# Entry
Amino acid sequence: MASWEAKTSDHDDEPGLVASAVLGDRAAFEKLYRRHRDRIYGLVWRLCGGDSTLAEDLLQEAFVRAWQKLDSFRGESQFGTWLHKLSANVALSNRRSRMKQLSRETVMDEAIERSATGEKDVYAGQRMDLEKAISHLPERARSVLILYDIEGYSHAEIAEITGMAVGSSKAQLHRARNLVQEELDK
# Structure
């Protein structure tokens, strides 16, 4: 048996791992987790505004949800695409819940909320300005900007993930880019 055949029989190929995980193979699901965790973390980190603690929680929530819903994966797309959609929905749902909660709470002075971490390099200030500008975007515009410009999704994929029309995705991207530029020009 060739070495690639041994790998395939060990379920190292993604469809084999998914099939095994659907049948309850936790080791196969762990391999899927290890393959996708960094990209999913990056996605949820951006969608939650760069809060690393929240991103860790959302990463775990996304994979728990993926394990629970694994039997609903039909293989009509790549597993990674399905997982990204599910993870984006977890992050966006969490964001909506947090926004509802925040609207009921008293807003603290921005200076109190800010922590002094210092600049680690000459571009840190610019990156913080960009991240701040992105974090101030309206939810739909922010989501589309992150999914399109940072994560590389197409407008069709964004429409599928968010439930908005392709034209709305394009309009939100245009709006988001303009708002970010306005914020950076201040």
